[in-house]
Amino acid sequence: MVKSTVKLPTNALLEALNLRPKHVFVSGASRGIGEATARLLGDKNFNLTLASRSYNRLLGVAMDIGTQKAHAVTMDLADENSIDAAVAAAESRFGPIDIMICNAAVHAETPLDDVSVEARQTFRRVIDVNLVGTFFLAQLATQHMPSHGRVLFIGSTLGRFGAPRTHAYSASKHALLGLARGMAHELSRRNIRVNVVNPGWVDTRMARDALQSMAQAAGETLQQVTAQQIGQQPVRRMIKPIEVAAYLEFLIGPGGDAITGQGIDISGGAVMV
Fold first, then answer.
1. Cα distance from N-terminal residue to C-terminal residue, the chain
2. Residue 273 lies inside a defined structural domain of this protein
3. What is the DSSP string of 16-42?
4. How far apart are CA 134 and CA 105, in angstroms?
5. Residues 51, 86, 121, CA angle at the centre, nearest 5°?
6. Number of structural domains, the chain?
7. Could you tell me where the beta strands, DSSP code E, fall in 103-160?
8. What's the pLDDT tens digit per position in 128-171?
């Protein structure tokens, strides 16, 4: 495990920590919700560590924001050493992480009628990335996180209900809420808030790939399946990545200080609780 060079802040450093730009770590920042969040926060007074497996695309995002305030690191949530190295590099560049946005995830179908070796490997990989690796990332980030920090997990409305052929993905997103609630209790004494944001159908490559798989399984067109899914929502359109990013911005600001241990749905009304 790579050791960070950053020490826990002493009282003498607290004022300096409060004056510096907040350090935001965004996983899965090369596209979709992660990219939209990085670009939104890049226009504000934040230093950003952007992590992804897709380094070339990620570097392009960081360069658009400006490399003085955006740092690109390669990270694979299936590889513990990669997680350790990414957090160590982030803290060495911008100091302790104030806000951890755990956005990276993988989606793959895991149908009940497939009991092959490959299917079992797929199930384990989805859980390893979406839950195990995500926990290790958040856990490391909180070791040096200052008071008033934030941990935000990007879940899914599939963490609210199940769906055919998505058992590993749905289970991993259900588990994030339990993880967040336990962490919210444990970190409350340090004034760190922990929440899960559950998007519905967001206009991203992952969502489009999932809809395409559903269409193939049903013997229907992509347009038919998309219309069926969106038609179940009061807001009958795909959610924009920037709409999720804007809510994340709210949660990391003063308005989010009284919110912790929650699962917050951005679903066009698909989930109402």
1. 42
2. no
3. HHHHSPEEEEEESTTSHHHHHHHHHHH
4. 8
5. 75
6. 1
7. 150-154
8. 999 999 999 999 999 999 999 999 999 999 999 988 999 999 99
Q: What is the pTM of this model?
A: 0.91
Q: What is the CATH number of the domain that holds 30?
A: 3.40.50.720
The tokens of 145 are what? 């996180």
Give the C-alpha distances (Å, rounded to integers) separating 181 from 126, 193, 197, 247.
Answer: 21, 10, 13, 19
42 located within any domain:
yes
Task: Label residues 68-85 b or e (16+ Cβ within 10 Å = b).
Answer: ebbbbbbbbbebbebbbb
- For 259, the token pair is 């919110």
Range of the domain at 262: 13-201+239-266
| Cβ neighbours for 243, distance < 8 A, ≥ 6 positions apart | 266
Task: Give Cα 119 to chain centroid, integer Å.
Answer: 25
- Taking CB atoms within 8 Å and a gap of at least 24, the contacts of 59-67 are 61/29, 61/30, 61/35, 64/39, 65/38, 65/39, 66/42
DSSP state of 156: -
For 95-99, 204-208, 257-261, which range has the lowest pLDDT when averaged over its residues? Answer: 204-208
pLDDT at 270 over 90: no
